[in-house]
Amino acid sequence: MPIDSSASTVATNALQAIPFGSIIGGPLKACIDAQAQAAQTTWDFIRQVGLSEDENGNVKAINVQFEYINGGRRMMLNIPLLTIVPIPYIAIDEIDINFKASISASSSQSSEKTKSLAVDSGVKAKASVRALFVKASAEMHCNVSSKKDSKATQESKYSVEYTMDVHVHAGQDGMPAGMAKVLEILNSSVDTVNAKGELSLSDNVLYIGSGGAQTIVASFRSADGVLDAKQIKVYLVEDGKDEELVADASVKDNKLPIRLADSDESVVCEFTSSNVGKNYYFRAGDCKSLVSIMSKSS
Q1: Bigger pLDDT: 252 or 35?
Q2: What distance in Å separates the CA atoms of residue 257 and residue 234, rounded to the nearest whole number?
């Protein structure tokens, strides 16, 4: 009797039918999707925590301010928020996929045949003599038996078992080069400024001769650390009172300096001999600085 190979065929077909593409590709795709989600989370964190957008759509870095005392003065420390908070850069750096398919198949067949034959035969004779005659008798016995047995068994079985272990390791990834450059620039922007702001003048005393002219360049940096020269105003100190001067280069009154230029960063004012002997205050915010105009001959 030939051996039945149907179980082996079924097991082989089962092995060929295993969806290796889904088994291996599924975890890989899940890891890629997780990595994309982590990148989106990082961008959302940067945008929500470290950046702000005005009504015109301009994006600016959010600064935090700390006030402290330095040399008896109140100072403000301006720090970009992104430089002092950890930015999440989670990346999957290792994926281990261990897959095991265990398929077992067996087939068994047995055959048994027995045959038996029994023969039993005999002859029995008996003789006797009485007087002048003989009396004889005979007896025969014969038995024959034959037996034939056959037995056949067949058994087939198979089993299929899948085992898969997936190990994923993720950790804080290195900062991208672009973001590292951004943070480098932001770190260099960390600055301290007077809590009242800082008003800077190129000179506080001008010496002007007859028919001559001198200029003063003034700039103002607010407590936020931003140059804002538009806050600068000039006052004439006269009879113990301050009088704000109107910036108009076309007016050449002997009380008025001529405002030559205005920008977000600085203001340029020209003083002539007509301003000699007068004092002026430059003011911005809570800051003020006195400028005296003196005669060059004195």
Answers
A1: 35
A2: 9
